[in-house]
Design goal:
The protein is mainly alpha-helical.
Amino acid sequence: MDAMNAHSGSVRSARREFAFLLHDVARLLKTYTNKRAREVSVTRAQWSVLSRIERHQGLKQSDLAGLLDIEPITLGRIVDKLCEQGLVERRSDADDRRLRRLFLLPAAEPILARLHELGEDIMAKALAGVGDETVMRLIADMNAIKDRLKDVLQCEPK
């Protein structure tokens, strides 16, 4: 029985350590990404917005706020700045004029190319010494955790 309790305590301790470690890694990655983003004169938030629009040209601004888990007003300010810089444009939706869809402008292409290079360098440094198989396993495990958390959040009352 004592061995079972010790094992149970060990698992709880490992899960707690995992939570702290995940938070620390995310925080450090955000800090380093912020630092590197300045090389291209963008913020990490602008980088995230540009990358999402690149993947989903014509995305509704409200949907993008949800994807990035930020308030629409916060996203609006980021998009305003990107529009002022000539990197993004808002277009009215053909079916619903109230909706605004986001598109990259040609001026964003060289910036995104540089951001892709920075992103590769950041991850190469972060994952130095971690084997490809381990990275693939981490991706699969993190996606499973993400999916479970999405399910939990959908089942919880708001």
